[in-house]
Design a protein that fits this description.
7 helices, 23% strand, two-stranded antiparallel ribbon, Spore Coat Polysaccharide Biosynthesis Protein SpsA, Chain A, single chain, alpha/beta
């Protein structure tokens, strides 16, 4: 099975409060996208395609010379579609990995790949929730407490058979989703889970950025 990876990196990341696109925010002097792409190559993924911000394509190409770089879209779904079109035709399966998850360990990538090799059509790494979860109404009043025993936080890279991912994107051109697995779920394809890792957290807020910088200084083991 030949594997390629897509890194959607065109988001603006307003919650980080930085003057540059989210993927270009630096940790340890290197942009998030550089860390994310390096983690994929470290996990022995040979083909990586980055969907970059339109105004930073040349910069991203210089940052990740081993990866192919294509224009990103107005949203994640469009960026993934653009990157899918640039993947060689003989690729059997595709990983989709957030540029904002710079420290994903090799073991997580390997678990996703192993599940694909074993026949899964779609795979996501997950973590159990530690906090109590409550459903809250628009007035701020708690409606109910949710049983967290069956709830999971989803990470990336998410893995898919190429035909499954392409068909899901083609069938849901306007479906509002936050990850590619939701598109596949909407198409009725079972999504397998594998254990994730706390180190694969997503840098979304200034707090996350401070944590990532601290991890980097101590060595992102």
């Amino acid at each position: 099975m030949r594997i390629a990876a897509i890194v959607p990196a065109a988001g603006r990341g307003e919650r980080l409060g930085q003057p540059v696109p989210k993927a270009l925010v630096q940790i340890g002097g290197l942009p998030l996208v550089v860390h994310a792409v390096a983690a994929l190559f470290q996990a022995r993924i040979d083909t990586v395609v980055v969907a970059a911000p339109l105004d930073a394509i040349d910069d991203v190409r210089r940052m990740v010379p081993r990866a192919a770089v294509v224009p990103g879209g107005a949203d994640r779904r469009e960026s993934v579609r653009n990157a899918l079109a640039a993947i060689p035709p003989d690729v059997d399966a595709v990983l989709v990995h957030d540029a904002a998850r710079p420290f994903v360990p090799d073991d997580v990538v390997r678990r996703v790949l192993d599940a694909l090799q074993a026949g899964a059509a779609a795979v996501v790494p997950v973590l159990p929730l530690a906090d109590t979860v409550k459903r809250v109404g628009g007035d701020g009043v708690v409606i109910e407490t949710i049983d967290r025993s069956t709830l999971r936080a989803v990470q990336t890279p998410q893995g898919f058979r190429r035909d499954v991912l392409a068909a899901a994107h083609a069938a849901n051109a306007t479906y509002d989703v936050t990850d590619d697995a939701a598109l596949v779920e909407a198409a009725g394809v079972p999504v397998q889970t594998v254990p994730g890792d706390a180190r694969a957290f997503k840098v979304t807020t200034p707090w996350d950025l401070a944590v990532a910088e601290s991890l980097w200084k101590g060595g992102p083991a």
